[in-house]
Amino acid sequence: MLNYKADLVALLKTNTLGVRVVYQDFITEPELVPCVSYRLLDDTTNIKCPSKEYGILRFSLQVWGRNWGEVEEVAEEIDLLMDSVGFTRYGSADSSHPNGHKVKVMNYVVEYQKYK
Fold first, then answer.
1. pTM
2. Using only C-alpha atoms, what is the Rg of the chain?
3. Interatomic CA distance for residues 114 and 54, integer angstroms
């Protein structure tokens, strides 16, 4: 199992738009928007050997904004960041939160090998 949180947050914080990174499912505080929230979906170790292990990480990123233009601008940059370190987006969906915020949910996966 990898400790994904520190590396994931550090990567997401390198966005050039200055968007906050938060660990929340729903953003209700207007001052946090725009932001990116994240949630782990799966952290499975497939194979363990004496010198390394192989596994898979799946997680969901939510890009929150006040309007669709803001959401798309942030989502495009986040998608490029994730791709640059080997993550593949395997699904996305747009939604509106009852508080009026717009949100794009993007799911990512990466296979890894970790040397012990």
1. 0.83
2. 15
3. 6
Closest by alpha carbon to 100, among 75, 69, 74, 66?
66
pLDDT in tens, the chain (116 residues): 456 778 888 889 998 898 989 887 667 777 788 999 998 888 888 777 777 778 888 889 999 999 999 999 999 999 999 999 889 999 999 998 888 889 999 999 988 777 66
The type of residue at 53 is: E
Contact of 39 with 60, CB cutoff 8 Å: yes
User: Would you tell me which CATH number, out of the four given (3.90.400.10, 3.30.2000.10, 1.10.340.30, 3.20.20.70), belongs to the domain 4-115?
Assistant: 3.30.2000.10
